[in-house]
Automatic annotation (TrEMBL):
Annotated spans, Disordered: 116-144
GO cellular component: membrane
GO molecular function: lipase activity
Protein name according to UniProt: Serine aminopeptidase S33 domain-containing protein
Source taxon at top rank: Eukaryota
Species of the source: Lactuca sativa
Transmembrane segments annotated in the record for this chain: 88-107
Matching InterPro entries: AB_hydrolase_fold, Hydrolase_4, MAG_DAG_Lipase
Keyword Kinase listed: no
Keyword entries, A-Z: Membrane, Transmembrane, Transmembrane helix
Domain Serine aminopeptidase S33 per the UniProt entry, residue ranges: 221-459
Amino acid sequence: MICLGIKNASVVVHLNRLHFRVQSKPNFLSPRRKSPSAGVFYSSVYRKKSVIVNTIDPFLMAKGDAAGEIMLTSGASGRVTALLSMQVLKSFLMLVNAFLLLLFFPFRGRKRCHSGQLPLSEKGGKEEKQDVGGSGCGVNSNNNNNRKVGVPVMRVPSTIVSWKSSTSAAVAVDHEVAIRRALAIRKVTDGGDVCRREFSLFVTPRGETMFTQSWTPISVKTRALVVLLHGLNEHSGRYDEFAKQLNAHGYKVYGMDWVGHGGSDGLHAYVHSLDDAVTDVKAFIKHVLAENTGLPCFCFGHSTGGAIILKAALDPKVEKSVSGIVLTSPAVGVQPSHPIFLILAPLFSLLLPKFQLSAANKKGTAVSRDPEALVAKYSDPLVYTGSIRVRTGHEILRITSFLQRNIQKLKVPFFVLHGTADTVTDPDASFKLYKEASSEDKSISLLPGYLHDLLFEPEREEIKREIIDWLNSRA
């Protein structure tokens, strides 16, 4: 039933069209009247002056566009029909699809390549750059005598060059990586009488090149291995002093700058996926063990590096090959500067992954109570001091969430140290790790008033002594 507020008009409804015919002498006095010519019943109320169509005469439907009939093509009914048509719906979906393609095209991820043997033509002289263990995974700095001193050379297989390597942004990242790698190499100096310090380039199963370095004891026999993983925004070279102290007690130390840090591939402090870092660490541990057969291996991880070590240790293969792990201020639990970031992070990590979000940084957060240590850290060109990148922050939230859900599965012996005044990572989460982990051999040291960077606190020597004592009792 259709109501039209049209005075002095009768309505004719066709199957696909709506018409009206002007009445010369409408009769509104009769409550119900049958038209002798059209065969259509009309009923109306005089006060409302409305016309209601009750039935439709088939004869009128057959007449089509008779004289005196006007098609209502510009009315509301026509607009509604047009909006609901399949053609308009398809056009709308195509428009939405085009908009999404334009929106997400600039943020396409980097193409990944599979691990495997590189063609001989792409190995780029790799035969002359074999590492100590002869595994072919690293590049040893001692075999570069035929090169010009002070001129770092970076060789990247053509199979790992991304699809956008010709763009200005990719060229800028490659240039930045080359600069950071040169700085990292320059920091690798002679270890003196205590150790022999060397660097190498380790190609991961993902095809990316990681900067690694090692500290080998000279005056004492090597009793065990320690794989060291730094925290967010820093690099392995910051732990040079700690590595030399481990050397003095017979530990050969390996450090790796994980993706986006130090001298390794990737935009500085940008981590597309911490799962990639976990995969890289697993491969690096395997490489270290192959280089040093028969020696027990321990892992050390600070902050986000500790979270990466923990997730790697949940792998049964790593669990069997590692004798224990030491964690300082591990990122088992973190709190963003505002709860809203927990909601927005997943969306913005897809739309603007590399965007530097200054609001996500906690204002006035101190990581050490030693002013000299703070100056040394933030004046280091290999330490990232900018705002955290959106994707990186989201990945940290993801890995902490994973660890919270799987903390009971950890079986590797561990020693966790955490300052109670740490505002970067949560000391309560470390205590939860200690309480809920399935490891039979586990220890914890909660240090009252200590901040985040425990190995750079004024009491650093006491902390290092605790760590070395724990290692000595298990090596």
